[in-house]
Amino acid sequence: MAVNYSAKEDADGHPSGGLGAAGGGAAKTRKPDNTAFKQQRLPAWQPILTAGTVLPAFFVIGLVFIPIGIGIFVTSNNIREYEIDYTGIEPTSPCNKCLNVSWNSTPSCTCTINFTLDHPFESNVFMYYGLSNFYQNHRRYVKSRDDSQLNGDNGSLLNPSKECEPYRTSENKPIAPCGAIANSMFNDTLVLYRIDNETRIPIHLNKKGIAWWTDKNVKFRNPSGDANNLTALFQKTTKPVNWPKPVYMLDSDPDNNGFINEDFIVWMRTAALPTFRKLYRLIERKNNLQPTLEAGQYSLDITYNYPVHSFDGRKRMILSTISWMGGKNPFLGIAYITVGSICFFLGVVLLIIHHKYGNRNTSADIPN
Amino acid sequence: SSSLLRKARFYTSCLPLKKKDSKTRTVRSNLLLPGPETEKPKGSPLASNRLKTTKYTALSFLPKNLFEQFHRLANVYFVFIALLNFVPAVNAFQPELALAPVLFILAVTAIKDLWEDYSRYRSDKEINHMECLVYCRNEKKYISRYWKEVEVGDFVQLRCNEIIPADILLLSSSDPDGLCHIETANLDGETNLKQRQVVRRFLELDSEFDPLKFSSVIECEKPNNDLTRFRAYIIHTNGNRDGLYKENLLLRGCTIRNTEEVTGIVIYAGHETKALLNNSGPRYKRSKLERQMNIDVLWCVLILIVMCLFSAIGHGLWVWQFSEKKKPVFDVPGPDGNYLSPVLASVYLFLTMIIVFQVLIPISLYVSIEIVKICQVYFIHQDKDLYDEETDSQLQCRALNITEDLGQIQYIFSDKTGTLTENKMVFRRCTVSGIEYSHDANAKRLAMYQEPDSEEEETAPKGVTLSQRDSICSHQSVKAVHRSQSTKSHRRTGSRAEAKRASILSKHTAFSSPMSTLLKLEEKLTYSVQMNNNGYSAQQEKRAIESGPEEGELRYEAESPDEAALVYAARAYNCTLVGRLSDQVSIELPHLGTLTFEVLHTLGFDSIRKRMSVVVRHPITDEINVYTKGADSVIMDLLLPYDPRGKHQKKIESKTQNYLNLYAVDGLRTLCIAKRVLSKDEYACWLKSHLEAESCIENREELLFQSALHIEKNLHLLGATGVEDRLQEGVPETIANLRKAGLQIWVLTGDKQETAINIAYACKLLDHDEEIITLNAESPVSRSLPDGSVQIGFASFCTPSSSAHSKLGLVIDGRTLAYALDKTLENRFLLLAKRCRSVLCCRSTPLQKSMVVKLVRDKLKAMTLAIGDGANDVSMIQVADVGVGISGPEGMQAVMASDFAVPRFRHLEKLLLVHGHWCYSRLANMVLYFFYKNAMFVALLFWYQFYCGFSGTSMIDQWYLIFFNLLFSSLPQLITGVLDKDVPAEVLISVPQLYKSGQNMEDYQPHMFWMNMIDALYQSLVCFFIPYFTFYDSDMDIFSLGTPITTIALFTIILHLAVETKTWTFFHWSSCIFSILLFFFVALVYNASCPICYPPSNPYWTMEKLMGDPMFYLTCIISPFIALLPRYSISLSMCTLVIAHPLYILFVLELR
């Protein structure tokens, strides 16, 4: 205190001694303002948990959650889904011969799996490939990409980010697209046929519209220049080590080639969990009279290039219709139903307790 | 225990004497010719008068501030983690981004420091540029200079009402008696004026003081911080040496009052002045809750290490399962193309995990706690119930960081005088030569105390005051202008309670000297003489009083209220003190007219002697008399041992003792007055040794003490006085309520046992149905005997059978306390004291007080609070966990040493029961919530490690991860930490038992940390696995999974707080809603801002995509429900249980 006294203070008649100085003026006192805020008397709501407030809450939650749960559950159950594991672990599997395929094996191994759909798939069908025990979310794997290269930055194209190491350069040429994610891109080819009277009718698989719109149009771009001549644009780069062909030869359609190839974009969106599926193709419904996929015999031709056996991975092909809630997953519906039921149950228990014991307490209070 | 002076003296004597390294300072006039360089002493230069309290300069701010901040271990830890991010092998986040929170926290603290330093700089500058008159050799006159230009050895001239710029030795004063009045409110808060004296030899100068002729050398001690001591001597050109005292020194920061002009030489300047040396920074105390919290922070560190180890081992195993040849494509080799060995990989991962899980150690915890405490202090400040109208003072929080300790106090140690009582002394009774007189007028006035109080103050016009001052204050040749100024200023500062009270009786001010205790003595002397000589009867006295008020023109200011009481009382009997100079006292006696006594010496009070004396020369008889006043126990021992007057004297003694006991029973403060007539030879002999003692620098206190012992013996008892000290308003109720709250109240007082017991009964500390154990050691002569008796006392009450006495009161006196505090007995003493409902320690010294507090604090591991108002309580206030000062009339020492200062004792009730409870419960809940929040958030990341090969991936975007604590979840918890009220104030006051929750640490017990951890574990499991199962085997990418998890976690965390919040105000609602909206806003903007930035993560358009997906909303709704269902159910069943709880019934009753 002794240091910070000041002449001003003294002149105003407020010695910093602290005892208080009403002085002659008396207008200025130290009395705190009597406001609700300063006196901590703000209007407040004090939730007192009584049977009256809690019981209805439990019942309401139960009544709201159970129908929602049933709704989700039913929706999920109405989704048609068919899944084929074509890894070929079982010796009987047609793909067993391709089990030990490696990245560079030529010619590619092919196998065909026949299957039967018992129920027709009415609406649009999404064709997925699924991988299991594949850690696309490994920290160093996730980092191993260069977003500015993929965004068409010419500088990054020729000088990719260090994050891509050791898949940054190959034979002294920058890799495009660089990094481990691109290098390990899924490269099996799946073709679907409907077997109608022993004839194989190919089903049209739409390869566009499977990626996020923003990825396709904003995040991923080919290097600037003549879009029709991708070969020239990628001239000074080399293909990723594991790829059979360079990035500008992924597709013939110039709108789906290079970095904006949708299969590539889908792959680059790294999956959250080691068991995942990625959208491969769309099967659009042709008309309202016919289901997209009728019940019957189908066959799946697989060009088996992608090795997963070494790390006990599995590969699947999934056909699925889709609803407002995405793919088939009964979990959330069950969760809602369970929680709703528990709330309802708790409500009932509390009601009983309240009736049995609550009255006694209130009556005990009254004589006081 | 009342006189401030006595207390101050006590401290002086307590100080260890300086080592005899004979390092003194030599001060010469700067005006001496020639070449000041040769004159100045070599070695360290003397400090200039420039004030510099700033810590930093523009250049040194950054390094110095950072250096200071890095003294906090937590900061070093966070910087270490941020730097770890720059190592490519282990980094988890974008390195620059990881630095952000640390930098933010550092910046906030730095800005706070900078702001504080800047305001210090500004106040420094203002003070440095104040002007004063300094003598200039060239111009041969005083010219105006800035304060900062003043140097040691300069001559400074000061006018009335100027502030003293440095420590100045007073050489000349316009006052004919060489006096100078100063106000020391800036130093110690005392508003009465103190006298300072011109150095004796300069007083004798005939002509005006001329600085040019000053050639003496001043030899003084090195600068020190003792305000009450100045040891120096001045060597004149002729070789004579004169001692200098603190009465010669004008201290920096004080204000000149009532003196037209003074001149002096600067002795200490700038930072070497006593005022600045005394200015120690605020004390840092660590609260109990914080200590407990730090243990849990360590637990968090342990949990963090375990989690990291677990992950590291998991990762090692995961890497190991893929043999070298079968490396999967997703296991990326190092930059050189080689795969890491499992061991190396797990070592790297361990470090990565520390970065990822760093949130577990809450970086914002300390900052948040500080913010919350500042707000709590603000609200305590603003409470109008803690404001005292009468003194216009409010509660001051001097320690900002122990608010929550107020809610956990178990023991209160209270002073009596001025704390429980008003410290407004009223003279009630006296006994002279064994005959008792009562002073009934004061009893009547006591009843109508308040009314005249305010009226008188207003109806007193300034002019009247002035003219009356003129007539009586003859020794003050003050010019009109200055006088009016000084009067005005004095009115201003004097308009406090004490002054008001004084103005009831008179309008005139006679300033007491620093040795004003003397006043009392003088009065006593004349009083007793008068009564002896004239044989006044009680009836006559009464008549005299009736005429008293009309002629009451004097206004006394004494340093201690009971002195003033005695002087006023004496005046009522027409023995009026009319003048008081440092060496003489003028007293108007009814039959003799004005007598002027020459005061030869004053032997001040100290707590060892417990008395003070004055040596005066009687003007008529020319006798040299020693008058001593002091505690009866001391005076009685000093009386003439072999009595020449035989039985008569013996009778007086026993009668007086008898009356003293009666006074004490009535709760009066007693003092004995005794006298000794010295013969000329005796005096001359003593004088010689005394003067030697006075002029000594090194051992002065010691020698003066010896000298006093020499003269204070063979006394002749005159009589005794009884002064009443009223209880403060609301004290019994407060004590009763605090007791109900489970607080043990001990009263530690310097008063005598009977008085203390009486006051204790009056304030309901002791009950009449209580059994009182009184411990008095009989004899001070042999130690073994009292030891034995105490032991017997202890032993008999320590037996379990005595537990039948539920109500025990313990009274112990200082002498016995000294034995009880002995190492061998302290445990027994505590055992006994613990059994008692109340403990009363009488006649205890300040040191004993602090020892008692320390004993309880350390041995019983209890939270202690000490409350007191005087300098004798300072040590106890400092020792206690929470020190409370009462800003009463006894000066500011107690307040300066305290953590909280309250105007009244009764304010303690609301401070503890309401604010203490709130602060504790708020902070405890907040700290627990903090641990929960961080653990729950980090556990989410931990669960994810099971699904990413323990590779350290975080599915939560780095931005969310880093700013979650700082931005999204911080505001609601701060609001709750500041504003939540678990129980309303009225209920806390009316049901004091609720306070026990704080004492028993019910809101934050060690197991609660673990309960919260388990709850966090459960909630994080829910928050992670519901999205996990919902999105299992789908095409969700990492951040499309992480963003819903973050959202769910945020909802859960905020709803968790909502369940914990007891009272909802507008601020709670809005902060919760604001936080959630802020999260969505930031997420949407961030996710839309840049498609290629922020490597390695890039959540472009994730939030936008998710918000178009109904599954996102469905998961976000159900997960918090499931997560909070157990906690909600438990708090629900707690509520139902509480209904049957006795407190709840009280609670309900109060609400009706």
Strand arrangement in the largest pleated sheet of chain A: 1-10-3-8
Which oligomeric form is depicted? Answer: heterodimer
Strand content of chain B: 15-25%
Mean pLDDT of chain B: 77
Shape of chain A, please? extended
Interface with most residues: A-B, 111 and 121 residues
Q: How many structural domains of chain B?
A: 6
Structural class of chain A: alpha+beta
Biggest β-sheet description of chain A: 4 strands, antiparallel
Major beta sheet, strand line-up of chain B: 16-35-34-33-17-29-32-31-30
What is the total tally of β strands of chain B?
35
What's the number of helices of chain A?
Answer: 10
Stretches with pLDDT under 50, minimum 5 residues of chain A? 1-27, 360-368
What is the 3D shape of chain B? Answer: elongated
| Sequence stretches where pLDDT stays below 50 over 5 or more residues of chain B | 1-21, 35-43, 446-552, 779-805
| N- and C-termini, Cα separation of chain B | 46 Å
Query: Mind telling me the C-alpha Rg of chain A?
Result: 34 Å
As a percent range, the share of helical residues of chain A equals 25-40%
Organism (chain A): Crocodylus porosus
Main location (chain A): membrane
Family (chain A): Belongs to the CDC50/LEM3 family.
GO molecular function (chain A): aminophospholipid flippase activity; structural molecule activity
